[in-house]
Design a protein that fits this description.
- The chain is α/β, with parallel strands linked by helices.
- The protein contains eleven helices and ten strands.
- The strands form three sheets. The protein has a five-stranded mixed beta sheet, sandwiched between helices.
- The radius of gyration is 24 Å and the shape is globular.
């Protein structure tokens, strides 16, 4: 395990105590050379920096061979994968539609599936999710169960007496993370309330038992995200028929080499968790969704012939009494375990710094585009002036 000693971006470029002030983009001062700015941003916001062949924001220069390969993939491979992906989503929707006929609880957002209905939804979800990964180019997924040396005996001795894990806790690298976890265990997720109303996806998310939250709700009857998650995790840990909840405690994605601070929502229930580590080795394009817009990322992912993912399942983590009483301690200990076993670097950055990084990149891109436009206008003005003189 390594620790990233780079401090969170300060309010002032020269450093100093950032206190409680908002973090501002680095490019607010005098402009510097573009390459120097990119290097400074990549160092300061290392957990979000792309290092693949497509560069920052997926707009890096490509060789003629890379351009030709991308054009061929976009012409032949991309349409096939899109059609296959839509087919799989529709197929799973039909399974969910059949299994929810004459079932109570659908309007409330959580249909009460039992017996063959529940088994059909879970089996179809795992199989079709694995098929979707295959369509996306993840042909082989090496998985390993890794024993943890020097584990606290009290945790393991009590494992037979304690409840089942209520949540899967995983590092967050890409939207592909969700597909893998669906193919492995069909967990439920935390989603915005609007997701339940989406065509196709809405019914699927209800059948998976997703936790729908209204993030902007401030009403007194609202439990909030943490309250809803805690309640569900406690329910799952005591009911073998409830699917585990998949949680990404970092709250956002990284480039896969770092681990951000954990939020405590997954650990408030005082229940055991199942830690999982995901890694995405790559040659040209990284499946990590860090500093690139969604449409461009999906396009490049589907245009890559083969993608790779490696999975490590760690033993169930049973919290000590001290960790149960201190969710922050519980979260930090699980985070350190994931960092050690996954060879990930601990970082103190978070979602706020990621937004600053994206704002700086977009500002730099806009500045570059404006400079190019100004150069072209000067050339046109010069050409008009020469023609007038002649």
């Amino acid at each position: 395990m390594a620790v990233d000693t780079t401090p969170a971006a300060p309010s002032h470029p020269e450093g100093g105590d950032s206190g409680g002030e908002a973090v501002r983009p680095l490019l607010s001062g005098a402009p510097a050379e573009e390459e120097g700015e990119e290097e400074e941003l990549d160092v300061r916001y290392a957990p979000y920096a792309r290092r693949d062949a497509y560069g920052v924001m997926g707009r890096g220069p490509l060789s003629p061979a890379q351009v030709a390969r991308l054009v061929l993939a976009a012409a032949f491979l991309l349409p096939l994968r899109l059609v296959a992906g839509v087919f799989l989503v529709v197929a799973y929707y039909l399974v969910c539609r059949i299994c929810t006929l004459f079932v109570d609880g659908l309007e409330e957002g959580r249909p009460r599936l039992q017996g063959w209905r529940r088994e059909a939804v879970l089996r179809a979800g795992r199989g079709l999710s694995r098929a979707m990964l295959f369509v996306f180019g993840f042909y082989w997924i090496p998985m390993s169960d890794r024993s943890v040396p020097n584990a606290e005996d009290v945790h393991q001795d009590q494992s037979a007496e304690l409840e089942r894990p209520g949540a899967i806790v995983s590092n967050h690298v890409s939207y592909v993370d969700v597909l893998y976890h669906m193919s492995a265990s069909s967990p439920s997720f935390v989603a915005k309330n609007s997701v339940s109303k989406l065509p196709l996806i809405g019914l699927i998310s209800k059948c998976l038992g997703c936790i729908f939250v209204q993030r902007e709700s401030k009403g007194s009857d609202s439990k909030g995200v943490s309250g809803a998650v805690t309640e569900r995790v406690q329910e799952v840990s005591q009911d073998n028929n409830s699917p585990m909840v998949l949680l990404f405690p970092e709250g956002t994605t990284t480039n896969g080499d770092y681990l951000l601070p954990f939020k405590t929502g997954a650990f408030l229930a005082r229940a055991p968790v199942q830690p999982v580590i995901l890694r995405y080795p790559y040659k040209r394009f990284s499946p990590a969704w860090d500093s690139m817009d969604g449409a461009r990322h999906v396009f490049l992912l589907l245009c890559q012939v083969a993608n790779y993912i490696e999975v490590v399942h760690l033993p169930i983590y049973y919290p000590s009494e001290q960790e149960k009483d201190d969710p922050r301690l519980y979260a930090n200990n699980v985070r350190k375990l994931l960092a050690i076993e996954g060879n990930l670097t601990l970082s103190n950055l978070g979602l706020a710094e990621k937004r600053v990084y994206h704002a700086a990149l977009n500002g730099m891109e806009n500045t570059t585009a404006n400079n190019r436009m100004a150069t072209r206008l000067k050339m046109f003005d010069a050409a008009d002036s020469n023609s007038s003189d002649s």
